[in-house]
Design brief:
Layout: H1 3-20, E1 24-27, H2 33-36, E2 42-45, E3 52-56, E4 61-65, H3 70-78, E5 82-83, H4 97-103, H5 110-113, H6 116-119, E6 120-126, E7 132-136, H7 146-151, E8 161-168, E9 170-171, E10 175-182, H8 185-196, E11 202-208, E12 211-218, H9 220-230, E13 233-234, H10 238-246, E14 259-263, E15 276-280, E16 285-289, H11 294-303, E17 307-312, H12 326-339
Length: about 350
């Protein structure tokens, strides 16, 4: 089936569901269902709507259909020594581009290169009325509808069905080096924040166990100069460390204890919460494995100037997310009403 036929078929399904007020559960590779849970409604499989539509290495822009496997995108970019700058986690071989953008997850490079939302140039979607709409473009100068395209990142499929996504991509660094420093969490937070304010080629910073890990990326001369300035021991297989951190394959992420994600100001002190900690994003993203009641985790995250989300754990856990402030809640409801008035997309 041609692209237009596939798009129109999906749009017909959405229109029929909207008319009947029938919920639709948008499905891709389902590699992140551990976080999103199972949505109610008739499955709407977008995986057949796949393939790279256009790729201009000299323009640093790629456009692909939402069902395209993320591994296919990575391979196409690697052939030209390019990459997705936000270093998205796959969480499984079946991960798709649409699911990646819909969840909005970003990897260790996020504080230094930008988030998934920052790289979205344009989208083609089906709204809750079954209308096929296009927003944004394929260059940064085209800002028509740009913000609406970015709203798709992190919407978890609740606003629209993604058909295509245009993304800005980045050149792969000429050289990368991972350094390790034996130190505690409080000192690591201080160092990461100090170094973030210096002209250093940082591309990742995390604290795991009793070690602070940083990644330097760029020209070989710049990486070597930074190593001389900072010290630290080169880490063998540094690429594997960041891959396993990104994909939650490190031992820290194993086990059945609830895993919480705390988004905090990078320099915030460690909350006084019992459990095991891993710090990423230079201090801005902190992972906590703990049986502490949700209310206490939310209270301390809020007191530190951030918020908490249960990333992996029992779906019936009360208070999985910090409640939105009233203005944000109203804005979210208005967006949902505008794009999906019948409320059919990804009903929890």
């Amino acid at each position: 089936m041609h692209d237009a036929d596939l798009s129109n078929s999906l749009a017909d399904t959405v229109r029929a569901a909207a008319a009947a007020r029938t919920a639709l559960a948008i499905r891709g590779g389902q590699t992140k269902q551990f976080h999103t849970g199972t949505c109610h409604g008739t499955p709407l499989d977008v995986r057949p709507h796949r393939g790279i539509v256009s790729y201009e290495p000299t323009e640093l822009v790629i456009t692909a259909r939402a069902g395209t496997p993320l591994a296919e995108i990575d391979a196409a970019l690697a052939a030209y020594q390019q990459m997705l700058g936000f270093e998205p986690p796959h969480f499984g071989k079946a991960a798709t581009l649409g699911g990646t953008i819909a969840c909005g997850f970003s990897g260790p490079r996020r504080p230094y290169a930008g988030s998934a939302r920052d790289f979205v140039l344009g989208t083609r979607i089906i709204n809750g009325r079954g209308e096929i709409l296009k927003f944004g473009g394929q260059v940064m100068k085209n800002v028509a509808g740009y913000d609406l395209s970015r709203l798709m990142a992190g919407s978890f499929g609740t606003l629209a069905v993604l058909l295509e996504v245009s993304l800005k991509v980045l050149p792969r660094p000429a050289t990368e080096m991972t350094l390790g420093f034996q130190t505690g969490a409080a000192d690591a937070i201080g160092r990461m924040n100090t170094w973030a304010g210096l002209p250093l080629p940082l591309s990742a910073a995390a604290h795991s166990g009793d070690t602070l890990y940083i990644r330097l990326s760029g020209a070989e001369s710049a990486v070597r100069a930074a190593h001389t300035r900072l010290g630290g021991e080169p880490v063998a297989n540094g690429d594997a460390f960041w891959h396993d951190l990104r994909e939650h394959q490190q031992p820290f992420f194993h086990g059945s204890v609830p895993l919480w994600r705390l988004s905090l100001p990078p320099a915030a002190p460690m909350p006084a919460l019992a459990g095991a900690w891993l710090i990423d994003w230079g201090g801005a993203q902190r992972w906590l494995k703990s049986d502490t009641p949700a209310a206490e985790i939310h209270r301390q995250a809020s007191a530190a100037g951030g918020y908490a989300t249960l990333f992996r754990g029992p779906r019936e856990t009360p208070g999985r997310e910090t409640p939105l402030a009233e203005p944000l809640r109203r804005l979210q409801e208005n967006l949902k009403q505008s794009l999906d008035p019948a409320g059919i997309f990804n009903v929890a």
